[in-house]
Automatic annotation (TrEMBL):
<feature type="region of interest" description="Disordered">
    <location>
        <begin position="459"/>
        <end position="498"/>
    </location>
</feature>
<feature type="domain" description="Radical SAM core">
    <location>
        <begin position="160"/>
        <end position="378"/>
    </location>
</feature>
<dbReference type="Pfam" id="PF04055">
    <property type="entry name" value="Radical_SAM"/>
</dbReference>
<keyword id="KW-0808">Transferase</keyword>
<dbReference type="InterPro" id="IPR006158">
    <property type="entry name" value="Cobalamin-bd"/>
</dbReference>
<dbReference type="InterPro" id="IPR007197">
    <property type="entry name" value="rSAM"/>
</dbReference>
<dbReference type="InterPro" id="IPR058240">
    <property type="entry name" value="rSAM_sf"/>
</dbReference>
<keyword id="KW-0489">Methyltransferase</keyword>
<keyword id="KW-0479">Metal-binding</keyword>
<dbReference type="InterPro" id="IPR034466">
    <property type="entry name" value="Methyltransferase_Class_B"/>
</dbReference>
<dbReference type="InterPro" id="IPR006638">
    <property type="entry name" value="Elp3/MiaA/NifB-like_rSAM"/>
</dbReference>
<keyword id="KW-0949">S-adenosyl-L-methionine</keyword>
<protein>
    <submittedName>
        <fullName>Radical SAM protein</fullName>
    </submittedName>
</protein>
<keyword id="KW-0408">Iron</keyword>
<dbReference type="InterPro" id="IPR051198">
    <property type="entry name" value="BchE-like"/>
</dbReference>
<dbReference type="Pfam" id="PF02310">
    <property type="entry name" value="B12-binding"/>
</dbReference>
<keyword id="KW-0411">Iron-sulfur</keyword>
Length: 498
């Protein structure tokens, strides 16, 4: 059987404001995971449109028997175009992922079969029925497990296109249920958070070359028993890695230290609003009453960098939210930041409420990219929100503020690392673009590994590092959300600074 698998490019990855390096970070693990279920004699081609142009004439001319496309909300239009073309040429087309699960009737117009929810239970069933000649038009996941997951087909991934090709996902979903989260709709009808067997996760790590790893899990620290066993198995491997976690998990005694000893050097954390009333409004209960300044101190004292996430446009935000957010992040010593405009995604409680209130401005999914205002804000005009979003990026990444933020560290070595990491990520765009253009972005990985290796030297923790007191509003960011690039199963996630 000839199979073609495609990750279509996000709209924001093709526009004038794109940062090429942001879309050359991670390979399409979701499709490579599904490819693991195919037979050894199947002919498989895997394409990631973010890093390579599609030769559609050749692809259509090959007349694949099966075409698998994984759309995300801002790649839905492109995904549907590709699906329609392949169907017109006689290929059987399937679609799955977050957007398909949220809007199945829309997706079904462009596919022979669609998949709702994770694909680990439905994909093997589909393959059997497809080979037998009677596939169903719709498959809905109900059994949630990562047992007997075949090895990811990393041989299909063109590693030289990616800065961090050693990405992996060892869990699915998240134990929390924030009102804005895209993932709750995706996991409806079954478990919304489950993990791989520790031995299987360690075996996957063993298969990866080099030192650097990037865990794309929504919340790697979400199951403490699993996380501690994983970190125990990773100790002594000599790995350095990055991941995502919550403020609650950072403040748990002992867990962060175990992660650090296993090689954690950078953590994506949601520091997302300077207005505390946004927390209960969005059901972000895991953040209520937490001291966010203590989170940054605790991470830094463990030698772990902070990639902070911030969302603008929640109902308690006013025109001052942008400057206040940047000032907090700079003053706290956050190394890198990812800013977003609040985006109500279809399938979420937030979208349903805003739609019922007449606040959804349109359904042009191309603009649901966290860079455009697609709803009516409460305390800001759409123009103020978009302009403030771009201004926050400019202000946070000025050399002056990078220097101020680096100066919050106690030792010159830490300040230098901060300057090198934050400045190198945001200020060397021409160099990144050249590496990507000539297919040499992987050449920068040793430099990333050396920079991350320099972290991990820690100072003794103070009593305040485990604090849970409620700080003043100017100290405590609050709720917000942005889904990350779909990567595992029929969807999983990852996070990187913008």
């Amino acid at each position: 059987m000839r199979v073609t698998m495609i990750l279509p490019a996000l709209t924001e990855a093709t526009g004038p404001a794109r940062r090429p390096v942001k879309y050359a970070l991670f390979p399409p693990l979701g499709l490579a995971t599904l490819a693991g279920y195919l037979d050894p004699d199947d002919e498989i081609d895997l394409y990631d449109e973010h890093v390579e142009p599609l030769d559609l004439a050749a692809m259509l001319g090959a007349r694949p028997d099966l075409v698998v496309i994984q759309p995300y909300i801002t790649s839905a239009r492109r995904a549907y175009q590709l699906a329609d073309m392949f169907r017109a040429h006689g290929s059987y087309v399937v679609l799955g992922g977050l957007h398909v699960t949220s809007l199945p009737d829309e997706a079904a117009l462009h596919a022979d079969s669609i998949f709702l929810g994770p694909g680990e239970d439905t994909w093997p069933l589909f393959l059997k029925e497809f080979r037998d000649g009677h596939p169903r038009p719709r498959y809905t996941s109900t059994l949630r497990t990562l047992e007997a997951l075949p090895p990811i087909r990393r041989d299909l991934i063109k590693r030289h296109h990616y800065l961090v090709p050693n990405s992996l996902v060892v869990s699915r979903g998240c134990p929390h249920h924030c009102d804005f989260c895209y993932k709750d709709a995706f996991f409806e009808g079954g478990k919304s958070f489950y993990v791989q067997a520790v031995d299987d996760a360690l075996a996957e790590i063993d298969r990866l070359p080099g030192r650097h790893l990037y865990f794309l899990d929504d919340h790697l620290l979400g199951n403490r028993r699993f996380a501690e066993a994983l970190f125990a198995g990773m100790r002594g491997m000599g790995r350095v890695w990055q991941a995502a976690g919550t403020v609650q998990s950072v403040l748990q005694p002992g867990l962060l230290e175990r992660a650090r000893d296993a090689g954690l050097r950078s953590l994506f954390v949601g520091f997302e609003s300077v207005n505390s009333p946004n927390l209960p409004d969005t059901r972000k209960t895991q953040n209520v009453g937490r001291d966010y300044s203590a989170v940054v101190r605790r991470l830094h004292d463990c030698g772990v960098m902070v990639n902070g996430s911030f969302v603008f446009g929640l109902d308690h935000d006013g025109p001052d939210v942008f400057a206040r957010t940047v000032e907090w992040a700079v003053g706290a010593g956050v190394e890198t930041a990812t800013f977003h405009i609040l985006t109500p995604y279809p399938g979420t409680g937030q979208f349903r409420r805003m739609e019922a209130a007449g606040r959804i401005r349109h359904r042009d999914w191309d603009l649901y990219d966290t860079r455009h205002v697609v709803y009516d804000p409460v305390g800001l005009t759409p123009g103020q929100l978009e302009n403030g979003y771009w201004r926050a990026y400019r202000d946070f990444y000025t050399w002056r503020n990078i220097g101020r933020s680096a100066a919050t560290h106690a030792h010159p070595r830490e300040r230098l690392r901060h300057l090198a990491y934050a400045g190198g990520w945001k200020k060397l765009e021409p160099a990144w673009d050249a590496l990507i253009r000539y297919g040499r972005v992987l050449d920068a990985l040793p430099l990333l590994e050396r920079t991350l290796t320099a972290f991990g030297r820690h100072r003794p923790n103070t009593a305040a590092d485990a604090g849970t007191s409620i700080p003043a509003d100017h100290e405590r960011p609050a709720a917000g959300a942005v889904p990350r690039s779909p990567q595992g199963g029929f969807a999983a996630s990852g996070a990187a600074p913008d």
